[in-house]
Amino acid sequence: MKREQFSSSLGFVLAAAGSAVGIGNLVAFPVMASKNGGAAFLIMYTFFVFFICLPVMLAEMSLGRHTRKNPLGAYTEIGQNRAWRTVGWMSVITPFMIGVFYLVITVWIFGYLGKSVMGQLNELAAAGSFGNFINSNELFVYMAIVIGLTFAILQGGVKQGIEKAARVLMPMLFVMLIALVIYVFTLDNAMLGVKFFLIPEFDKLTGKVLNGALAQAFFSLSLAMGILITYGSYIQKNNNIVHAGKMVAGLSVLVACCSGLLILPAVFSFNPDIQLSTLSESSISMIFTFLPKIFLAMQADIGYFGASFIAAFFFLLVFFAALTSLVSIIEVPVCSLMDQKGVSRRTALFSLGAAMIALAVICALSFGRVEVFSNLLSYGGINKSFFDVVYDIFYETILPLNGFLLCLFVIYRWKKHNLDAEISQGNSTFAGSLLQKYVNFSLGTFIPLILAVIFVNTVSTIFFGQNLLF
Ligand code: PHE
């Protein structure tokens, strides 16, 4: 069977941007930036995106397009030994498991969307509402709908499913985001938030903050999850990988910036005297506890109906972003199963879907409902739920490890000249360019080094309660 392909470079860019733009850009980024130096954080983040993440991105896309395979297939074909095959397995299991917790968060967002549409804003803004919601039976109804939607998109395949969804959802997302930014700018005191976001405070950039910014950039571009290898395997040979990669990175930063201009003005118009240090670090509490309060407060101006409308509009925006990310991450194991076992898309979707639903249900029950899942393990001096364990192991720990191994694999196993040859197809100016030298050098030296340091420090911090660096 001929491998499916994106219809054009734009098709790939939208799909990959769909993957990149997610809860990370829309919520985690503004929260981090506001607490850690505003524009100074933004500058460092942008620097990391282009100087550290972009080379990794190009490497993943090239590896996929060259082998025309999923991560497991690509590592097996080029690696030619058990060790690299194991790394291939890690690059398929990691997105599967990250998919599980991302699915649960997407379900929460969808639930908040549903409740805002039904006019239950009062309830959403009430204390304790989030905790009640994530432990309610209603959650499973929302979960069934999100799973149904995700699988319907994936069943459509590359062109008719993934690309089509991205072509519809991404432009809508951009328009909605801009519309919301314009709206919050009209609110009282919005400019205080803009000022806060745009005035750089370089002294806030500690080692810890820089580490966080890099991790955020890495996660946000969907690196080391096998996604760009998989999507790369659907890119046409005459498309320009460098150009497409820069577009995806640029769009991701742009969306992150716009959401800073959305969230911070909203926060300041709600409370001009707010001390940002009192805001919680977590994007979860930002979306699900703090923002609903802001939406409810808007009713003084625009009435309950207007406030519910704005809330629904916002949650729909975040839901679109999360859905396209969820699709991309589940496509990795789906594509792997299809390639490696020769099964149909439908069979792959159903078998992986069943496993994923089982794990997502366990996650959903691990917030106090079922004791064994809620207090699964204890390490680093903290009791962890099943959800926490999945997050700590696959997102925090294995992601930088996968990134580190990917750099070594591409440069020292696949070899620089093969990488260069693949990127040069569709890009006649790459060979001999400064970019080529930079990509080759960085991927073989300091990028894997940085990722290795992050990996070691994360293991030590999370599992042994000892931060070696800060
Ligand atoms: N880029 C996504 C974000 O910013 C992260 C992600 C991508 C998560 C794909 C899961 C799957 O939220």
TrEMBL record:
It holds the Pfam family SNF. The chain crosses the membrane at residues 12-33, 39-59, 92-113, 139-156, 168-186, 213-235, 247-268, 302-327, 348-368, 393-412, 443-464. It comes from the Bacteria. Coiled coil: none annotated. The keyword Kinase does not apply. It is found in: Membrane. Keywords: Membrane, Transmembrane, Transmembrane helix, Transport. It is a multi-pass membrane protein. Signal peptide: none annotated. This is Sodium-dependent transporter. It comes from Rheinheimera maricola.
